[in-house]
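FYI - complex with adenosine-5'-triphosphate, inputs then prediction.
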Amino acid sequence: MSETTTIDTETTGESQRTTTDKSQRTTAGESAETVQSEWAEYQFEGEPKLSVESLDVHYGDDRALDDVSIDIPEESVTALIGPSGCGKSTFLRCLNRMNDRIRSATVDGQVRYEGQDIYRDDVDLVELRQRVGMVFQSPNPFPKSIRDNIAYGPRKHGDVRTGLLAKLTGRDDEERELEIVERCLRKAALWDEVEDRLDDNALGLSGGQQQRLCIARCLAVDPDVILMDEPASALDPVATAKIEDLIEELAEEYTVIVVTHNMQQAARISDQTAVFLTGGQLVEYDRTEKIFENPESDRVEDYVTGKFG
Ligand SMILES: Nc1ncnc2c1ncn2[C@@H]1O[C@H](COP(=O)(O)OP(=O)(O)OP(=O)(O)O)[C@@H](O)[C@H]1O
């Protein structure tokens, strides 16, 4: 697919955030500049895993993200919340350049992964999406066996070789492949449910099992960051609870960023929360507890208490 994304590749070094007076509570009428400065003080230990600076996204002439800057810490869960159409999914897709696939999308600004600008012309998109994996709203397993779903990525990337040719050339990695399949299914809390039917078609699994399989498939290519776009919105409460537990476990090893419409879910599972509001603005970003218990912005308070959105 052709890529028409416009990228600003200017390198400006580490982001400089100005500290502002947090006593300035905002109202709906205040300018974006004032509103966006609210969360400038959110600080965490260590270097950011992802650092986004002045990110603007347009679809044709329509703006979807407006000057978004945010640093995301490693090995934690970051929730992205906000009303429908405020740009959460667009933002998520910028983090592994999935928006490159959308012809009308124009991306300006900077996204750094471990300090490296991911929008440089020479970035290998396959490698980027391997490191920054994605799990979608609706479970989308391949119409293949459970084993093949997990082994797909490692086979494609040449990490394992199986099959007749591999057997004939003595490079058969069947054992290693099974080890990867088991490890990833265990990490996705699915192994116990499927260990005796690895060769069954994945489409025979329940919705919740399919979603955990998709997470296991994502883990199989050894990601560092996992982007999740409403991963539980199509699931029943029991399956949702399993995904939530899994997300919290994954955050011990991975950097997880989750878009969710469910504010209780954001409050339950995330360490920090970013609130986007209409117009594609990131209005507030802070510890999840702070966002839900004592947000700086009146608009955020109205949103998290359900007064609008
Ligand atoms: N592929 C696209 N082409 C054109 N416009 C798009 C495209 N994807 C999103 N948009 C527009 O960009 C804006 C932000 O959409 P986005 O899906 O990122 O928001 P969202 O907050 O994730 O919404 P939701 O919560 O409903 O999924 C919306 O106005 C949407 O219509």
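DSSP finds twelve helices and ten strands in the chain. The longest strand covers residues 48-59.
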